[in-house]
Amino acid sequence: MSDTVKYLLDETRIPKTWYNIAADLPAPLAPPLHPGTKQPIGPDDLAPLFPMALIGQEVSTERDIEIPEPVREVYRQWRPAPLFRARRLEKALNTPAKIYYKYEGVSPAGSHKPNTAVPQAFYNKEAGVKRLSTETGAGQWGSSLAFAGALFDLEVEVFMVRVSYDQKPYRRALMETYGARCIPSPSGETNAGRTALEAKPDHMGSLGLAISEAVEVAAQRDDTKYALGSVLNHVLLHQTIVGQEAMAQLEMAGDYPDVIVGCTGGGSNFAGIVFPFLGEQLRGGKNVRIVAVEPAACPSLTRGQFAYDFGDTGHLTPLVKMHTLGSTFIPPGFHAGGLRYHGMAPMVSHIMDLGLMEAKAYHQSKCFEAGVQFARTEGILPAPEANHAVKGAIDEAIRCREEGKSETILFNLCGHGHFDMQAYMDYFAGKLQDLDYDEADLAMALAGLPTETAA
């Protein structure tokens, strides 16, 4: 049908493998380093935090990695996720462009995050782990891991960034409904948290600090492992199910993207939609313009340095080469809590360094304006994080209108905003401030980067 709005795949079309872009890159990713020796780390260095199956995926260069059947069985509850043609938005913008969006808000937790939470819980359960610790910004990841923990009978402890803990009580309630324990970070339960509170009693927290607390808890107990919702290779790998499905759905539509837009915080939903298409390009397929959209208040890709840095504020993690604002950088408390991370996924950073993508940064008020326009045309209320991708896609469609070009735009609508209504209330009341980071704080954080190594 020429006027089709949604493209649906049968459950039998759920991909049987995840796609690993490491197999197709023209240059390998820089290895993670031990912070003491500055030498590449091995599997044993990661074993206190992750089960060996995930460590194997973290370093794999195989193109296709099999999705275990128990994981695919859980995926069937919401996958394949729908692909929509944004026809009403196109009309409102008076653009010749075709806009498609993959909608990940159909998952039980309301975002793309269960795509990796479920396999992480599965592999930990298989390894005999009893308990998982993690961090969360806006609560999308925390609620997703809580959901997965309930399915596989794992205890889950979530350190939620304090500003989001206060801003988003319903996400916290969802985690507790699934059976998880949610703690505001910084907390008094870890050395990292206590140190931060001693320095600043009203500390609003950051993802880097919450990671430190969760890693510290995992390292202290043999029955506990750490789970991460973004940044690492195995997390990005699990999200590629999004792009693989989108490729099949666009084939149904007889279309292929000219531009792919994704919002970026740690990089997982962006990688999920982009990597399968980029892999096709790297293997000789059609060139696709790739646009990452990040918050202007935490612009790791557009303002960060590509350097080795800690993934956490408390310096408990290995050093990874990424676009970073510095591990001690604390971004202001804007509403897109899932994007408040000082660094970008090493694999996304590597692709940026190879010149295979570009990045833009927007303030939150313009992103909420785009999200409201999207809701009033397409009917879906995006999460504050997803609004960045909506804004990027709208700008691309307006460019097509101005240039008289009929391009195909694809973006990932990574989650709904049903638990983010306070943010929208603040926007309509004129209370939403376009927060900027402190230039002096950024300079200080970047000055504190670990000494660059030859590795």
TrEMBL record:
Organism: Bauldia litoralis
Keywords: Amino-acid biosynthesis, Aromatic amino acid biosynthesis, Lyase, Pyridoxal phosphate, Tryptophan biosynthesis
GO molecular function, one term: pyridoxal phosphate binding
Function summary: The beta subunit is responsible for the synthesis of L-tryptophan from indole and L-serine.
Protein name, entry field: Tryptophan synthase beta chain
Stored PROSITE patterns: TRP_SYNTHASE_BETA
Enzyme Commission no: 4.2.1.20
Domain Tryptophan synthase beta chain-like PALP: 77-415
Catalytically driven reaction(s): (1S,2R)-1-C-(indol-3-yl)glycerol 3-phosphate + L-serine = D-glyceraldehyde 3-phosphate + L-tryptophan + H2O
Subunit structure: Tetramer of two alpha and two beta chains.
Modified residues (N6-(pyridoxal phosphate)lysine): K113
Family as reported in the entry's similarity comment: Belongs to the TrpB family.
CDD domains on file: Trp-synth_B (cd06446)
Class in the EC hierarchy, top level: lyase
Cofactor(s) listed in the protein's UniProt record: pyridoxal 5'-phosphate
Domain of life: Bacteria
Gene Ontology CC terms, in alphabetical order: cytoplasm
HAMAP family reported in the protein's UniProt record: Trp_synth_beta
Pathway noted in the entry: Amino-acid biosynthesis; L-tryptophan biosynthesis; L-tryptophan from chorismate: step 5/5
